[in-house]
């Protein structure tokens, strides 16, 4: 059980959600935006996170949007990963998101929760990172739109009180040839030691990785070099923890890149 | 905008019955089902979303009730193991010994019931994807797999 009490707020608009946050902060409280709740509830139960109130974004229509609008595929932050897999129309996202946690958890786990949560893997952002995705964020200035190339640096950069409304990708980019490969230590339901996702657009290949570093990383255009060279000149420190050492992760990265490039029929130069 | 604070009255639809219950906004659905509504089919296992012993159906889809606040269940259909009486999946798990100690059984029953309903035709990959959400500490997976197949056949027979 969750020992501590917290309030539950269900806003019906973007403004209500933002204003609820502001009012809580003004009152000296610690609010938390809430999507599927899978992480917040688990952390609250172990007393690792103690919000004074949760603001449930599932009540906000824009956060539940899922579909094609004006040539762009929109994935509301409060949509479950199951919905994004089964109804989103983005095959790479379907392939990547269906490996996160297990099916029953994905029925609740939200896209926004996966991308903005405390766990470092944030695998659902990979397809958007490598396909030129965009983040729709709401905050004090209203709704703003920013390419993930700049909006995502180790994590989604959100200002005080801001929240992710949706991730967006061009319909054309969502239909590009894609590949993904995920390596885990044991069974399928596990954190990734190396998870790579990629799209090919002509001679350009965009790759995004999770599990290799302490955060997801995009390696756009680097993919046309041989996998062993990519693995040799990594831009970040390779993660080393109880699941795997850095050298093992590097070896898996080489495998993942090779599988992805082969699947995309890319000949490294 | 709805705001719930302190002890609140919730109106839940569980196994087709309207049930009023007083709870805190921070109470999980698992705790409310077991401790306030005396529906002990959902089991507290890891309470961390890993084991699946607490699985219930939320508008027909399996979810882990330890990861869900009870306040979120208002306006939705909740099904617990008690709501599966006389279903094909119940009969099949009995006939094919789809349990050993029984602690995980309610979770498997609900997941299997939802799976058979959503996917009447067998598909090994889909079955694996759904059922890997539940752990059996007795490792009685072979019996569970056979019961699953039987439940699907029974459901198809009833449907046809």
Strand-helix topology:
The complex is a heterodimer of chains A (269) and B (160).
Chain A lengths: L6 E4 L3 H13 L4 E4 L3 H8 L7 E4 L9 E4 L2 E5 L4 H7 L3 H7 L5 H4 L4 H6 L9 H5 L3 E6 L2 E6 H4 E2 L1 E2 L6 E8 H4 L3 E7 L7 E10 L2 E7 L6 E2 L8 H6 L13 H18 L6
Helix pairs in contact in A: 3-4
Chain B lengths: L1 E3 L3 E7 L2 E7 L5 H8 L18 E4 L2 E4 L12 E3 L8 H8 L9 H14 L5 H8 L9 H19 L1
Parallel strand pairs in B: 2-6
Antiparallel strand pairs in B: 2-3, 4-5, 4-6
Brief rundown of the structure:
By secondary structure, chain A is an alpha+beta fold. Chain A has helices at residues 14-26, 38-45, 81-87, 91-97, 103-106, 111-116, 126-130, 148-151, 171-174, 227-232, 246-263, and strands at residues 7-10, 31-34, 53-56, 66-69, 72-76, 134-139, 142-147, 152-153, 155-156, 163-170, 178-184, 192-201, 204-210, 217-218.
Q: What is the H/E order of chain B? A: EEEHEEEHHHH
Q: Please tally the helical runs of chain B, counting DSSP H or I stretches of 4 or more residues.
A: 5
Whole-number tally of structural domains of chain B: 2
H-E order of chain A: EHEHEEEHHHHHEEHEEEHEEEEHH
Distance N terminus to C terminus of chain A? 56 Å
Can you summarize the main beta sheet of chain B? 5 strands, mixed
- Give the amount of beta strand of chain A, in percent: 25-35%
Write down the CATH topology of the largest domain in chain A.
Uridine Diphospho-n-acetylenolpyruvylglucosamine Reductase, domain 3
> How is the largest sheet of chain A built, in terms of strand order?
4-5-10-6-7
The whole-number mean of residue pLDDT values of chain B reads 94
If strands are numbered along the chain, what order do they take across the biggest sheet of chain B? Answer: 3-2-6-4-5
Helical content of chain B, roughly?
A: 25-40%
Poorly predicted segments of chain B: none
* DSSP strand tally of chain A: 14
Helix-strand category of chain A: alpha+beta
Radius of gyration of chain A: 19 Å
Q: Strand content of the residues of chain B, in percent?
A: 15-25%
What is the first-to-last residue Cα distance of chain B? 46 Å
State the name of the first-level CATH class of the largest domain in chain A: Alpha Beta
